[in-house]
Amino acid sequence: MIQRIQTIYLLIAFLAVGILPFIFPLWKWSDGKDYFVMQNQIYSILLGLSTAITVYSIISFKKRQTQFVANRLNIVLNLILLGLFVYHSLNLSGEAVTVSEKGIGMFVPILAVVFLVLANKAIKKDEDLVKSVDRLR
Description:
By secondary structure, the chain is mainly alpha-helical. 72% of the residues lie in helices and 7% in strands. The protein has one domain. The chain contains five helices and three strands. Helix 1 (5-18) runs antiparallel to helix 3, helix 1 packs antiparallel against helix 5 and helix 4 (64-95) runs antiparallel to helix 5 (108-136). The radius of gyration is 18 Å and the shape is elongated.
């Protein structure tokens, strides 16, 4: 259901994990070349899994509880991915002289987590509304 606000939030989270990592680099090497997510297999697998969970969550709009749990799993997955990005960038900045600057692509999981949390708030609100209506019957 596209008219529900959580679906809009989930679509934005899908764009954040499915498209933006291929546009924005994680960092730039000193020779001017960009380092993208698809150059590391672990990052690609985790982002693909996160994208698949987001699509599953969008598709399962009739099962709010399943959608809520899938979003929580996706939040944890994106936080792990963010931790890997930060860990790798801290190791690179201290040891490798060839990295000139960090890119904005490292913070894409933060954007996804924010919109997944907003979607979970909206799902919880819908669930509470349905429960309150069921109590009145």
